[in-house]
Amino acid sequence: MTTPDLDSLRLLVLVDELGSIGQAAASLGIAQPSASKRLSTVERRLGLVLVDRTRRGSALTPDGRVIAGWAHRVLSELDGLLDGAEALRTQHEAHLRVAASMTLAEYLVPGWIGELKRGDPGLYLGLEVTNSDQAAELAREGKVDLGFVESPGSLPGLSSRRVATDHLVLVVPANHPWARKRRPVTAAELAITPLVVREPGSGTRETVDTALRKAGVGPAKPLLELGSASAVGNAVIAGAGPAVISELAIVRDVAEGRLVPVPVDGVDFGRELRAVWPAGRRLAGPAAELLSIAVRNAKSR
């Protein structure tokens, strides 16, 4: 299946919002015949009828409305990606300096930054993407105004506030024996199984090790250490071995059958994601606003 282009997705969303191809075309500054042709191309690529064309006009079919809703989410995520990329580009001339662990930087922080930037378009913001230990250390040393970490332990020298909750999930490829296992994997089974893991200093790695120790077992020697959740997920898909990673990182791969989540009995892989800043310092200005946005979004999830 060929992926529809972004302009066609925008057109489909506008047809849904405005109620007609003509108004959507006018909003994009293109001719109505061109708009109709684009929508026909999307229908062929997806193998679905998206627009009901009659003499009285055109309207989205039920399938078209569903696809338009998904397209709106894709475009919103793209806006978050672009806002996050802009933050990285302006790192050296930032008015607000932020550090974030990999999982937060990949899946949550870009959306928060996008909302902050929409309220203050002139703000220069620098984002440093690292692991939780390094993000905490940068905040502790005052090298960033605000950090976002996944570490489950104490954070000496830092004030913190929960901004989101997350759950780690054991995943395997579809052809792995555990994918067909009728009973949950036990803590003891997991403890003797070499896993694909994040690097030392990662909040995900620390959460897994801490959860296993609380369950009365210790982690096995890692099978492979990698520097991001996406790298870990790709290694599992390629057949390297099982992994325990954030549910934020596996949504698409699970939906498309590349990864299979496996329940684990007796181990709590829940965790809090926290904002951190130097102890004794009161957040103000853009840093306080970014924290407020993060907390507000956590309540709506």
From TrEMBL:
Q: Which InterPro entries match?
A: LysR_HTH_N, LysR_subst-bd, WH-like_DNA-bd_sf, WH_DNA-bd_sf
- What does the UniProt keyword field contain? DNA-binding, Transcription, Transcription regulation
Q: What SUPFAM superfamilies does the record point to?
A: Periplasmic binding protein-like II, Winged helix' DNA-binding domain
The residues covered by the HTH lysR-type domain are 4-61
Q: Does the keyword ATP-binding apply?
A: no
Q: Which domain of life is it from?
A: Bacteria
GO MF term list: DNA-binding transcription factor activity; transcription cis-regulatory region binding
Q: Does the keyword Glycoprotein apply?
A: no
Instruction: Return the PANTHER family for the record.
Output: HTH-TYPE TRANSCRIPTIONAL REGULATOR, HTH-TYPE TRANSCRIPTIONAL REGULATOR CYSL
Family per record? Belongs to the LysR transcriptional regulatory family.
Which protein are we looking at? LysR family transcriptional regulator
Which source organism does the UniProt entry give? Amycolatopsis lurida NRRL 2430
